[in-house]
Amino acid sequence: MRAFALPLFAVLSLGLVQCSPQSGEEEAKPTDFRSTVEVKLTPATVAKLGEKGEKVVLKAFYFGIVTQETVSLADPNDGTIHLGTDMYDPKVKDGQTVHLTAKAIDRAKLGQISQGKPIVRLETYAAKDGKRVETMLCNDTQDYVEVLQKQVYTIRCDLNQQ
């Protein structure tokens, strides 16, 4: 009987943990990986976007590096674990602070990535009618979220001269 007591307790405890309320976890989701970026457009870029009726889009794509155990779960196109994408539409003006909430990160997948550390790829571009247009070029970046959290990263955008 004693031999069954410990495994039975472990199974029941696991069931309780899995059924326990996760409201605190849900509230923490957007704040754990939040960061801040500054989007700066040149005056010529602001004028051209306004003239063409285009808007600015900031895409924050979160992903992680696979481990030996999760290689089979990786996206076949890039070999990473995709965690989610947040989209932001900063105003068309010379400078604006954008607070990245990281709401899209699928916390259930954090255990599948190396050290549980997500990476974010920031991409900024112009769009019209929901489609990307090549009016401006920006210095996009990619880094571990924890690195970007240490300071405000500045994205600079200028007119595409091509």
What does this molecule look like?
With 162 residues, the chain is of the alpha+beta class. The protein has a single domain (30-159), classed as Immunoglobulin-like, CATH 2.60.40. It is built from four helices and nine strands. The protein has helices at residues 2-19, 23-32, 43-52, 145-148, and strands spanning 35-41, 55-65, 80-88, 95-100, 119-128, 131-133, 136-138, 141-144, 153-159. The strands form two sheets. Strands 2, 3, 5, 6 and 8 form a five-stranded antiparallel β-sheet that branches. The protein has a four-stranded mixed β-sheet with strand order 4-1-9-7. A hairpin with a 2-residue loop joins strand 5 and strand 6 (131-133). Residues 1-31 have low confidence and may be disordered.
Give the secondary structure arrangement, pairings included.
Layout: H1 2-19, H2 23-32, E1 35-41, H3 43-52, E2 55-65, E3 80-88, E4 95-100, E5 119-128, E6 131-133, E7 136-138, E8 141-144, H4 145-148, E9 153-159
Parallel strand pairs: 1-9
Antiparallel strand pairs: 1-4, 2-3, 2-5, 5-6, 5-8, 7-9
List the main descriptive attributes of the protein structure presented here.
26% helix, Immunoglobulin-like, 5-stranded antiparallel beta sheet, 162 residues, single chain
Separation, N- and C-terminal Cα atoms: 78 Å
Mean pLDDT: 84
Q: What shape does the CA trace take? A: elongated
- Would you identify the CATH architecture? Sandwich
CATH topology: Immunoglobulin-like
SSE order: HHEHEEEEEEEHE
> What structural class should be given to the helix and strand makeup?
alpha+beta
Compute the CA-based radius of gyration: 21 Å
Number of beta-strand segments = 9
CATH top-level class: Mainly Beta
- Count structural domains: 1
Helical amount: 25-40%
Oligomer: single chain
Number of helical stretches of at least 4 residues: 4
User: Are there runs of 5+ residues with pLDDT below 50, and where?
Assistant: 1-31
